[in-house]
Specification:
By secondary structure, the protein is α/β, with parallel strands linked by helices. It contains 6 helices and 7 strands, in the order βαβββαββαβααα. It has a single domain, classed as Rossmann fold (3-Layer(aba) Sandwich), CATH 3.40.50.1470. 37% of the residues lie in helices and 21% in strands.
Amino acid sequence: MTTTWLVVGLGNPGPQYELTRHNIGQLVVDELADRRHERFKAHKANARVAETWVRPGGDKVVLAKLNSFMNVSGGPTANLAKFYGIDPAHVVIVHDELDIPFDTIKLKMGGGHGGHNGVRDVAKALGTPEFSRVRVGIGRPPGRQDAADWVLDPFSAADRKALPMLLSDAADAVEQLIDEGLLAAQQKHHAPRA
């Protein structure tokens, strides 16, 4: 029997935010959809979704990009989970992480929100923090730049060069988390790169 997973890429709606650091979660979900030649369709939960699978014959996956702003990601996420009958244990939130260096991926289940307002709102709406997170490192701002401004800035030219590989690695991490479990995904993606 297959399980249905909900993979939500956090971000802000609108073209002005599309290539900002805060939207890296949505960029990862775009990569997952592109690999499967899927297009996103409007959903009544204030989101765009693509229904697919991790691999043919494997678990069903609902990829989602929310139409709400980052800080109110919880309502649409909880509504999608309810609509598809998905337990929080099978929800994967992909989001930017200031406390991880750029070009680094960390995975975890549950725990705190680390000051990330989108993750905080999802935990509140789901009624539990016990969901998986694929945390994509964007690093801290240089100098005295405010973190709130940093996350809404576009990627630097140097970061843009590395971005396709980072998105690919993060998409791999999501696939492995669903297909092989959290521990296997952590062992692969937490190891130093060769």
